[in-house]
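Predict structure. Chain length: 189.
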Amino acid sequence: MTVDPAPSIQLLRNRTIVLVGLMGVGKSSVGRRMALALDLPFRDADNEVEDAAGRSIPEIFAELGEAAFRDGERRVIARLLEEPPHVLATGGGAFVNDETRFLINQHAISVWLKADVELLARRVGRKDNRPLLKNRDPVEVLTELAKIRSPAYAQAHVHVQTGDTPHAVAVDAVISALRDHLNQESFQP
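Prediction complete.
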C-alpha cells in the first residue's frame, strides 16, 4: 500500500486556518477565495470585532484607543477559534499579541502572508479606513510595522511570500504550503 505524500484537501478542512500579516497583504481577499477552494466558511476578525462592538474599527480606535481594540480583538478571535474549522483573516496587529498568537498556534494553523512594503503601500494607500495610516506616509508606517511585527509573524506555522499576482496564485501557494506543513507534521515522531 502506498501513501500519498501530499495531504488531501480533506485534511486541510480539519483545522481552522488563520491568515496573519501586514495590512494590505490580502488576508481577507485571499482568505475568501481560499475558503471557497477548501469548501470552508470564511471569517474576517475585523468584521467580527466591528459586529461585537457595534462600531467601526476607526471609531473604536478614536473613541476607546488601540489597547481597547486589541483586547476586544483577542476576545473575538478566542471565540472564533472555538467554532468548527474555517478560514480566518486577522487584523495586521492581532498576531503580535502574545496571548492571541498562542491561542491561534494552539488551536489552528497560522499562515504568514508576506509581501514587499512598496506593494502593500500601493494597496493600502488607496483607502482611508486604516487608523494606523491616518495622516502618515504608508511606506514609512509599513516599514516600521514590518520591523516591529515580523518577529511575531515569523512564529506562524507556515510562511508564504505573495506578490502582485492574481489572488488565485496566492491561494494555490498557500494551499501548497499548507499541504507541505501537514505532510511534515505527519512524519514527525
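Summary: The chain is about 55% helix and 10% strand.
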